[in-house]
Amino acid sequence: MRYFITIIVVLFFIACDEVKNKNNETASEDKKELTIYCENAMVPVLMELKDKFEKGRTCVIKLHNDGSQNLSSLIQYTQKGDIYLPASRVGFRKLNSRKFNYIVDSVFVGYNSLVVMALKGNPTGYNGDINTLILKKHAIIIANPESSSLGYDTRAYLKKKGLYDDVLINVVALSTDSRGLVKSLRNDEAQLVLNWESDIYANGNRNHVEVFNIPDFQQNPAEIYAGILSTSEHPELAKQFLEYATSDEAVAIFRKYGFNRRKTLIF
Predict the structure, then answer these.
(1) Do 196 and 73 belong together in one domain?
(2) Is 187 exposed, middle or buried (0-12, 13-18, 19+ CB in 10 A)?
């Protein structure tokens, strides 16, 4: 009799586990999956926004991060994804230049400012004048204009100033995008880098670099937009995320990572 009761108890717990697992599988199946493509510079802020947005909602957000060129190619090739968030609006141009309008709706989320960075203590004595980047004493790394929004905006700005070709002579390497630029300074691979100012808010970078603002770029900084893709399988959920991205809570989070909604005024 005792063995019979033991068997009954064991079978009861097995049945409970099966019901629990089945419920978990059903709950998982009910969750909608939102895919967001973002440039690497946007990953830290999106990780926090993702966690906040998922709470209280039956959805899971998956991030795919890379440079704007690779992301554009991925969206075009897979014809999948819900939201695109490049580090500058030029990422939209790169995607929509492929003879198809992939962005069906978008919201403004902030500005990105281009700055010059040197290792903490400014060992080479850079004086903050962008025109002196052409001096032969500087070893510089910039982002590749073909692979990232940062590279594109860097080239566009330097060309506008008539400096690009001369600065290029001092460029010792091209990075894929903003990721790794501070590390290049710390590894003594360059003396100066041109980077997004927002990069100092990630990975403790603020403790390792000196930041030199570029006043005329700050007056016309790169605009950042989040856009819903025409390939979205959950356009209503994507719209909810864009609405959240412009909420007071999200605006404060963007600001925390260096993405302000107001231009810096230089007098």
Answers:
(1) no
(2) exposed
Query: What is the number of domains present in the chain?
Result: 2
Contact 203, 136 (CB under 8 A): no
Task: Looking at the structure, tell me whether residues 138 and 184 fall in a common domain.
Answer: yes
Find out whether 189 and 232 touch, Cβ atoms under 8 Å: no
Query: One-letter amino acid identity for 129?
Result: D
The first and second tokens of residue 80, run together, are 């999948």
pLDDT means per 10 residues in the chain (267 residues)? 48 49 48 95 96 93 96 94 97 79 95 96 94 95 96 97 97 93 93 96 89 93 97 97 97 95 59
d(CA 261, CA 240): 20
Q: Is 68 annotated as a binding residue?
A: yes
Burial class (CB in 10 A: 0-12, 13-18, 19+), 231: middle
Please state the pTM of the whole predicted model: 0.85
C-alpha–C-alpha distance, residues 68 and 18, integer Å: 45
